[in-house]
Amino acid sequence: MKFTIAQLKKNAFNKPFEFSREVDVSVLTTMNTDIRDITPVHVQGSCTMQGDQFFFTFTITGKMILPCARTLVDVPYPFTIKAEEIFTTSPYINEEDDNEIHSIHGEVLDLMPYIKENILLEVPFRVFSDEVDFEKDAPRAGNGWEVLSEKTKEVKIDPRFQKLESLFKDTEKEK
Fold it and tell me: What's the whole-model pTM score?
């Protein structure tokens, strides 16, 4: 999602410049291992200009697939993110001193890195699936691990120790 500085100065001079586009952010699945899939997101917003600064206010809506924290099944997670970014063409702004204002280098402003950054910041720590049968859908074993049941198992006695069991029964009767 790129805008030229000339286009922004022309369209955002007296009134807000409105924009609305679908953008593909599927590269986020390689950047964050929790995101299994993400649909193209809809970005809608406006840009206003004051002097040499451009104020972008936009909303990002989409849906990503995340793993359930209990069962690791796919959980669809719809999101709506409201973001505000400030850009400037002024050469006197030092990004190290003021990290709220981003410098524009060249004649093109690319909004995609800021869209991706806002999406990555909104990925939840964990999600849970409500529609899952845990016994059926959860993985039961993997590489070097398996799920153990808490059900009590019938105690099987080694036949060699069968006679010792009778001794324990006799001592219990005497008490």
Answer: 0.70
